[in-house]
Amino acid sequence: MASLVSVDGTSFELAEAETLIGRGGREFNDPPKIDVGPLSGGPTVSRHHARIYRRTGQWYLRVEPEARNPTLVGDRRIPGGEEAPLVDGIRIQLGEVLLTFRAPMEAVLQSAEVTMAEGNGHAVAPPAPPPIPTPVAPPPTPSAVADAPTPVVSPKRSDNWPARLPGRPATLTALGVTEFKRVNPFRGLMIDEEAWADAHDYHRLQGRLHLLAAHGWGIVEGLEVLADPHVPNTLLIRPGVAFDYQGRPILIGQERRLTLDAADGTTLYVVLRWREELTAPQRFWNDLDEYTRVVERCDALIQETPPTPPLLELARITIEGPVRNALDPLNPGRSEIDLRFRERLMVRPRPDLAVAQVVVGDDDEAARRHLLGLRFLLREIGLTTGYRARWAGSVRLGDSIPNVSLLYLAASGSFVVGDGALPPLREFLDNGGVLVLDACGESARADFVGSAETLAKKLAREFEPVGRSHPVLSSRHVFGELPLAAKKDDAPLVEGGGLVLCTADLGCAWQGGGQAKPLSRDVIRAATELGVNLAVFARQRQRPLEVIELEA
User: Whole-angstrom Cα distance, residue 444 to residue 490?
Assistant: First the structure.
């Protein structure tokens, strides 16, 4: 028996004579009816949308004249009142509902040669194309042969490349329409439900087309999946925004929880599914309820099969014991939440990477001396990373720390951090920020290092040398070893818990060195790239998932 299969696997059997496809229950004088209203996109289907029937061994679909939204058979739009032949496996789209026609075996055999339709809608086999004559060029004259340039013979390439072109752009396939229709207003225009539907659908489709064609689809912001710290084997989905494969908005305004229940070795996928929900019913004279509003919602699901569009993947986990957050988001292990396969929207606002300068006591001169270098560093961050560099100005120790990723402190000798400034600094580092302590000049470098070590002890940080595997040497630009700009025998570049100590005077190197002692181009470049790495390292300490979202 012939049937229609939806994208979620629901199968509807078709009557041999005629089946009506639409929304709602069967009404008086209706033939057998299939109600696709509960499916995703069901509200876009008319109550009487199309009929499928069999005639002389061939199946056909005819669109009802009152159908409001487009109907496509394959890639061809079928106007109201017209019919189209059906073959096994052909895709049917009613409004935003996607169905696949499955014919019984005998019908498949009979329709194997059906490839096109005549004007009356009856299927016929296409005529064989006439042979293309091969043109015969006249033989060249001897003089023409002598004067003709030697042809350039390019390597032979495949001559069937047109066959590999997609039959239809992915955007059109996802959108589901091939034309736009809007209301043409004039005085006396009769406004009915069809006019309302056309007016709203035009703007909805325009918005989806712009989004898919100009930006793509995927997660815009948020929607991270984390392990619930209080309930074992429970996932938290953070609030966020996304657009699915068809350009439809997915909003989650509050945290959602999902419970995992699967055997070890099972791979589970956390997905979102867009759906519409009819609400605010209103009863009419015929005792039928018509819903006056459509609410767009999304379902958070856990499944064991890899998701396919329009489902949107948020995470995947291979179960082996209690579920936990990944220690390294780039290399999650078993039972660790894997966020590497999340589809991100191609074009979206760049996240900010803010930098501020710390002024120690009344040493405003050291701060002014490094302002130009910090300006050049911010420019380089904006040009070479996926972040938008923000300058947050200067802050004195003891003041509240602005919302930044990187704090830069430079001094030419010893400095003192009072006890009142320690709590905000400790909170800043604990939340992922980075404080760079940069010795300016060489005369009192030992005093500066001593002050930095005292500060590290007060903040319960322990300095360790920055080795080749440290993110400071690879977060944006890759270094095989410390560059010349950071190599100092007496105090190499060290880091501990977000506190970085450098005695190479990076701030002056970012602006080319001092007036009396300019630096070489290689040293300036290495110092600038190292500074960019420090800033990106700071941002990724605060937001580890951005390693995946922006660069991986």
Answer: 13
Q: Which amino acid is at 227?
A: A
Burial (CB < 10 A; 0-12, 13-18, 19+), residue 221, is: middle
Residue 178 lies in a domain: no
Full domain range(s) for residue 479: 352-549
How many Å apart are CA 203 and CA 207, to the nearest integer? Answer: 6
Q: Same domain, yes or no, for 339 and 365?
A: no
Q: How far is Cα 520 from Cα 494, in angstroms, rounded to an integer?
A: 24
pLDDT of 114 higher than 60: no
Q: In the beta sheet, which residues pair with residue 439?
A: 411
* Among 416, 433, 444, 534, residue whose Cα is nearest residue 483: 534
Domain co-membership, 276 together with 316: yes
140's tokens: 């060249």
Convert the pLDDT of each residue in 491-542 to its tens digit.
Answer: 678 999 999 999 888 999 999 987 778 889 999 999 999 999 999 999 999 9
CA angle 308, 313, 316 (to 5 degrees): 110
- Which tokens sit at 323? 């579920």
The string of pLDDT tens digits covering residues 253-292 is: 999 999 999 999 999 999 999 988 888 888 777 677 778 8
Same domain, yes or no, for 329 and 293? Answer: yes
Crossing angle of helices 521-542 and 364-384, rounded to 10°: 80
The residues, ordered by sequence, that sit 6+ positions from 130 with a Cβ below 8 Å of its Cβ are none
Cα 165 to Cα 79: distance, rounded to the nearest angstrom: 27
| Cα(521)–Cα(276) distance, integer angstroms | 60
Least reliable range by pLDDT among 78-87, 122-131, 194-203, 523-532:
122-131
Backbone angles phi, psi at 272, to 5 degrees: -115, 140
